[in-house]
């Protein structure tokens, strides 16, 4: 299980500031290992000041814990690196990060007095081709490690003889697939990637949040289901274990992974090996509930993926996504307007474009998915509901056979809908009245606060908007 991006409302107890910086993230890594029982921390090297000394700092600050729990054997640090193919401004951070891996190896070797690599895997976001993966795999093997065999000009010593060996000899590259085309093409890319390598296993990461924002909730779920089915078939074909990772947040739109819903999510994606737990899961719930949920995740046995009629599902997805995008277009203005009031939870360097702070859907510039989700909840239109009127009753019956938590996830979102909201598309309002859900005091208060936010926006007054957004996040137990 890995931990990753921020969607929390509460400030972690160990942080002085709601916006976590690099030193806070060192503490966080220790906390999720030692107190929550997680076994993997994704270390994000994208879009912020990178701390290449994470292993050294963990070992020096928390020596007694890491004497018992060996990094690279009992607990794992997995680096998420920039993708130079699409993130040109961050490209050289990749080189710095890969160069830090042998240094972390040396640090751990001195500490543990053995040669277990503390870092041996990296996650590559926005993977679109086998070239993206191969460039990192071979750069590390041929240039980071390979240079140790080179000799200096007019001298007879190699670089390894001069400053020591470079280990580990190779790293595993984990592709993160984030868009429609490449999620569906993941098995083809993986097949080509392993064709010239002797790998003992593969890990593959499927995004769940950005596909939801780009194509709607139903399409996001179905894309992952198809990809998991294809990954399983590829594993059988190659005779290599493939261990899928899925990125899930606490909002139903982003996976509905909360301590109270762990068993539901596992049933939804039974073939997934690793579920990310995000900040709301960790910090917006009782710590004991979090620990128990983590134990359930770690003790479960992986199952088979659900069978999916791919042709029929893809046809439904296309129709639904068209409607979703039409409704999204009408709301884009207010989403961007309210986004500036949604508080940030990680210190990141500002960089713009499709893969930076903003996202682009059908030519619309939109905020990152956590802010996007928080913005829509804050005006009383949870993003889960958009586009649903594209389906007939027969369509919905079919969808429920594949998306098994559909009714529960939708019910969790519907209680926050303001049905009197003039921004709610009329055809969607009529369609949703057939669904059953239970409102409670918290959700009724949430609807009232969302009306306050819309009223403030109409008056062009900023007073109280951010506090209202945070209050609604507390009621939901997630920000976005």
UniProtKB/TrEMBL annotation:
InterPro entries hit by this protein: PEP_COase_arc-type, Pyrv/PenolPyrv_kinase-like_dom
Entry GO MF terms: phosphoenolpyruvate carboxylase activity
Keywords: Carbon dioxide fixation, Lyase, Magnesium, Pyruvate
Keyword Ribosomal protein: no
Domain of life: Bacteria
Enzyme class: lyase
Keyword hit for Signal: no
GO biological processes: carbon fixation; tricarboxylic acid cycle
The EC number(s) this enzyme carries: 4.1.1.31
NCBIfam families named among the record's database cross-references: PEPCase_arch (TIGR02751)
Protein name (record): Phosphoenolpyruvate carboxylase
Species for this entry: Fervidobacterium thailandense
Lineage of producing organism: Bacteria, Thermotogati, Thermotogota, Thermotogae, Thermotogales
